[in-house]
Amino acid sequence: xxxxxxxxxxxxxxxxxxxxxxxxxxxxxxxxxxxxxxxxxxxxxxxxxxxxxxxxxxxxxxxxxxxxxxxxxxxxxxxxxxxxxxxxxxxxxxxxxxxxxxxxxxxxxxxxxxxxxxxxxxxxxxxxxxxxxxxxxxxxxxxxxxxxxxxxxxxxxxxxxxxxxxxxxxxxxxxxxxxxxxxxxxxxxxxxxxxxxxxxxxxxxxxxxxxxxxxxxxxxxxxxxxxxxxxxxxxxxxxxxxxxxxxxxxxxxxxxxxxxxxxxxxxxxxxxxxxxxxxxxxxxxxxxxxxxxxxxxxxxxxxxxxxxxxxxxxxxxxxxxxxxxxxxxxxxxxxxxxxxxxxxxxxxxxxxxxxxxxxxxxxxxxxxxxxxxxxxxxxxxxxxxxxxxxxxx
Length: 393
What we know:
Shape: globular
Largest sheet: 8 strands, parallel
Strand order of the largest sheet: 6-7-8-9-10-11-12-13
Number of helices: 14
CATH topology of the largest domain: TIM Barrel
CATH architecture of the largest domain: Alpha-Beta Barrel
Number of domains: 2
Radius of gyration: 20 Å
Distance between the termini: 22 Å
CATH superfamily of the largest domain: Metal-dependent hydrolases
């Protein structure tokens, strides 16, 4: 068995330790007791996965689940020449909000549970769930309640993020929605213990860096960490503002500035890479090599959503990230495990194969973990273990 493990968090595109001829052990509570060379392990050995690579379970730290319904016609329209901005009014976030409003809670749960099951089969043992398709205080709270229920019912560990500023609701002025989100939505979500973090979409068709500051102030007042969709379709300086205010992550980063790259390398903030979104939108790639050499902590996620990244497979996101961004195959592993766990404040219990952490791990159908990046579209996960127990068919 080849074992890949990493201690949190890794910066600058660092690679995990890969141990050839390794052993992994855990106790009856599902906690890792040993991960290291087989020759130094004194307990009994099961040779069932002797030729396989074993890695920590994937942590998908940026998804837009739960949602209901697909938007494949918008993808077709973009391929024919229309832009995301062109579709923003008639389709996009507002369209998913309408589909959510028209569906029952059970319909949303059924649709989303099928996707979390698919993600689990592809090795996702922990993930983020987001709101953002409500676009009113009550609808966002409903979305958060569905997300919390989904988090409680699925086998994976899941956190819930309140995407308090995703799109300006119809009939609202942007500034009025921001004030309402700060004064009503965030306090209500916090009082009900529905969410674990707050997110803001900074873009010229969405919200500003000033809005980010204002919403962050409200979130911090309720003890909630802040995340930010930053510099996806154009340079907004959101990455450097996110770093300056102490946000947990800046995500997308396709058009991040040089100052933003430097800020992410200097501060305790993760650069979350979303390569399948870049692929589907045919956007420019973020400067991943510059982020790595600048010392940024890189994380990698699917951005699973119905409009621009209908992907729940972390192996696919890794393969695309390596091919499209030039990310080294082994560097993708901590980006998709321990660093992603850090983004969700879960790194103290999962994300790496260290004694005391949960025995959430994957057995691959290849002898070395670099194979993860090699076959896009192929599911390389032979077995998934949660808390030391095999799951799935």
